[in-house]
Design a protein that fits this description.
Low-confidence stretches: none
Helix content: 25-40%
Strand content: 25-35%
Number of helices: 6
Distance between the termini: 16 Å
Structural class: alpha/beta
Number of strands: 7
Length: 190
């Protein structure tokens, strides 16, 4: 049995390695992430995680365990995914400055043809950011591959006043929730 991570995210890979996952293979989903319009944030990330997981599970033996995830930042009724441009990253960070937002991650675990699908939500509070801080942070390039244009585990740790909920969820993989799901699938990590 292999653990298959249906993601190219280096952070998700690092988190699974931190847990001591052996026999891990990385097979990123290639399909375009699309979901029906109007979904609540938790349902949206579940839908996207499920699509990734099912795509990759179709390529793997059923005894493998496929883990897929999708993370968004939710702020003022809008989804903040990965920024598509420098300007979009700047705009996201300006909007998050001095305010709280939610981070949602949907998780799909597929094993022996059975899919478990859950999501986790964490609340993140940012301190007020100056225009110069935003510009310098965007100059690092760090925001460009992260939902909401920041990584709480990186340089943006300087912006995060507080987190309510699972910190690892903010990094893109809620480990406590994942552990419960794997246990329910008969796959223990301890």
């Amino acid at each position: 049995m292999n653990m298959i991570l249906a993601s190219g995210s280096p952070r998700r890979k690092e988190l699974l390695e931190m847990l001591g996952v052996k026999n891990m293979k990385i097979i990123p989903a290639k399909g375009e992430e699309k979901a029906p319009e109007g979904l609540e944030p938790g349902e949206l990330v579940k839908c996207l995680a499920s699509a990734k997981g099912r795509e990759v599970a179709a390529l793997c033996p059923p005894e493998d365990v496929v883990i897929a995830a999708d993370t968004i930042v939710w702020h003022e009724g809008r989804v903040y995914g990965k920024p598509h441009s420098r300007q979009q990253a700047v705009e996201m960070l300006r909007s998050l400055s001095g305010r709280a937002h939610q981070v949602y991650t949907g998780v799909s675990v597929i094993h022996e043809g059975r899919e478990l699908l859950e999501y986790e939500m964490s609340r993140v509070s940012f301190r007020s950011l100056s225009e110069e801080e935003i510009q310098r942070y965007v100059d690092t390039g760090e925001p460009m591959d992260k939902a909401g244009a920041y990584g709480a585990q990186g340089k943006a740790a300087l912006f995060v006043r507080g987190i309510e909920g699972d910190f690892f969820n903010v990094m893109g993989l809620p480990l406590c929730r994942l552990g419960e799901m794997l246990k329910e699938q008969g796959v223990g990590l301890l």
